[in-house]
Each structure stands twice: as C-alpha cells, then as structure tokens.
Input
Amino acid sequence: MNFDTSCLHAGYRPGNGEPRNIPIIQSTTFRYETSEDMGKLFDLEAEGYFYTRLQNPTSDAVAARLCALEGGAAAMLLSSGQAANFFAVFNLASAGDHIVASSAIYGGTYNLFAVTMKRMGIEFTFVDPDCSQEELDAAFQPNTKALFGETIANPALTVLDIEKFAKAAHAHGVPLIVDNTFATPALCRPFEWGADIVTHSTTKYLDGHAAAVGGAIVDSGNFDWEAHKDKYPGLTTPDESYHGITYTQRFGLGGAFITKAVAQLMRDFGATPAPMNAWLLGMGMETLPLRMAKHCANAQGVAEFLQKHEKVAWVRYAGLPGDKYYDLARKYLPHGCCGVVSFGVKGGRAAAGRFMAGLELASIATHVADAKTCVLHPASATHRQMNDAELAAAGVSPDLVRLSVGIEDVNDLIADLEQALNQV
Output
C-alpha cells in the first residue's frame, strides 16, 4: 500500500463481521484455560497477551501501523515521548557506557540525557549537528553505544544531516537513533537515509489533536547486532531473567531490539500507554498526510509574512530560501518542513512576552504540533533548566519564540500575528 492508504489500513484488517475500526481492548488482563498456556507467554515461546503493562492488542495494532509508515521491522508504543527516548537508549547502554548526541534537541530530552541518565552512570557527549565529519568522529569513544539526533530539532529547527550522522555511527559500529517527532514519516522516513532506530513523541503530529500523551519506538531491523556482539551483550547473549533467551537468535535482527525493550524495560519500568490513548493515536494517524500538508503550507505562508515584518528580528524555517538548512530540507524534507516556525521579536525577551500576550487566536501553551496554533517562549518554559551556554548550544536564544502553526485558515493566523506585533 502507498503511504496515504497505509495511514488508514496498516496494522489492522478486520475479519468477517468484526469491527471496522481498531477495537479498544480496555482490559488489564487476559484469560487462559491452563497455566501451561500462560507459561508459554512468560517464556516468550508463544505470542499473545496476559497483562497490558507489557502488551495490549489495541496498542500493538497501532504500533504496527506506525511501523508500516516508517518502513520498519518492529515497533512499540509507550506512555510518552520521554519514555520512548529513554527506552531506546537504555535498551543499549548501561552504567559505564557512553552516547553521542546532537546538542540541538528538545530540552526535556537534553535534561534526560545530561542529568537523569548521567546519574545512572551513562555519559553523554553533545556535538553541534553542523559539525564536520571529522569532529563528529572525534566524539566517539570505545564504550560508545549509540548516536542520537532529531530530524527537525525542537525548537531550534535544525535539520539533521542524517546521512552524515549514519555514516559516523556505522563507522564506529553503533546504531543511529533519530527522533522523528516534528517531521513524522509523512515528511521524512529516516530509515531510507541510514538511521537504524526511530523514536516519536506521538503526542505531537501523529496524534494531531493534543488529546493523548504517548511515545513510540520503531526499529528498522537493519543494524547487525551480531556483528558487534561484544558491544551489545544484552541482545546477543542469554538473558537469565527469561530462561536464557538470546534475543538476536530467537527473534532475529528484525525483532530483537523491540522484544528486549518490551520484555525487560516495559516489564520493569511500566511506561505503558492506555489502550484509549493508543486508539486515539490510531485515529489521528488516519488523517496524518492531510494535516501535515496543511501544516506545512500554513507555516510557509506565516514564515514568509514574518520574514518581511519590520518588528521581527529574524525567522528560522527551513522552507525559506536562504535559511541555513534550506538545502538539507530540500534533500530530506521535500514535501514540507513541518508546521513549526521559530523567530525573534525585536526588543528581545520583554518584547517577545508583549507579543505573545497580545495574541488572540494562538494560545500560549507548552504543547506543539497539533491542529490548533499555539506559541511558546522556550527559554522561559521547556528549556528554562539550561544556562546561557547550553541554550546557545541547543540553538535557543533568549528572544526565540516557537510558533506551532495549526490548520486554521492562514489569513486568520496572519491577521492575529499582525495585530499582536502592532502592540509591541
């Protein structure tokens, strides 16, 4: 099936007389006739469900849909994007290991890596996403387990050179993990450019309506864990907590990573999505291509308006000719650069605050990437835990305003921006 059709049909095909939509299986537990039948599930010897903390039919059907959209081999849903990024990294690294990550990433992810996971004994080196291939190579260490970046960075709107990052990762025998939240598979499929694992905050465009918090991990099935057995013993040697199963041998390269993440990490951390939230995500994905096209068209129009306005100091949107990432966007994002525009209001932080207070249609909200337009001052909100040097490394200046352009009529959006700017 082509992409638009997969958004509607992938992951679930009803049988005769069965529900046309993915059913919501709102149950914590599942019944079996014998203990032996259930025991096979606990030993990972049979497929099925016994407890929703690990797996649920609704979540699995929606995960299969997203897996198809990304062109992956296996996928799982989680309770949030933060959980997805944590699981994706912690599934490979433990105390004493090292990760290389782009510095231009979401502030919450940066804090997860630089503070919380550092407390767990995992060290991170943050690199400028625009660094040279040589500078990127120099960041790797013998104990490096993965390379991490965002397709379109939140909120810096840096466009990751996925091929450059993939080349470096593979040269050092590690997978490239790409957070594809802002692009979604409607605009970019990182696996086609060499990425190995994709993560999402499904709370954003994939859901599309700010209705359900969620996350996802999709594995390409392309990284050869067996070729680097010494680096990834958790995947390539027996797991005594599951009776000595070796994930790569039992589930192959296409299933080992996700199976381990479910069997070990979901079992122990329980970052489980509610079946209702999974169902809302599945419904949201049905209109993904239509919404992303509208988001991109509206954002392009808004960016062009802001670029010409006398009270706007600068505009960052990769769809604008002359933007630093215009050429990379044409390569990786030929169908649009998402609906998020970053810009600065002349007068700095105080002027940005006056502008935001004057908006009538757009809402000041911590959310981003849904159907309704919203706006945020990241230095005061999502990135407020960073100092000035860390803000600069993340591409977040004190005057930066993040505008998440919705799917309203673009003329109404421009009129709202214009009247608010007139109050500055």
Residues 247-269 form the longest helix (23 residues). The longest strand covers residues 144-150. The chain has a mean pLDDT of 95. The radius of gyration is 22 Å.
